[in-house]
Amino acid sequence: MMNDASEVKIRIREKYVVQITPAFKCNGVWPRSAHHWPVMGMAWPHPNLVAQVKMEGFDLLSKESTALQNKQSSSSMEGDAWIISFQEAENQLLIGAARKKCL
Fold first, then answer.
1. Distance, first Cα to last Cα, the chain
2. By three-state DSSP, how is residue 28 classified?
3. 58-94 pLDDT, tens per residue?
């Protein structure tokens, strides 16, 4: 096992590294930092799709802060940061012909 502050890395036979990152699924909520999405007046995405995507929520991933990664700290929490992932929302928006509208 390899030590890391917010995630676990396991080395298998000195050939593979498996990384396990703590994550939380946040259903039914939408982050304040993304409240402006989508911009009003746009024809796409349809309001029903927007409501579905926002209801599906987002993932919150634990990730060590790169700014404090190489520093020794008195508290292990000082280097932790959280990343918002919209991967599932992006996949929903890319279904079918909607991919062309994203590009």
1. 41
2. coil
3. 999 987 655 555 555 545 555 568 899 999 999 888 8
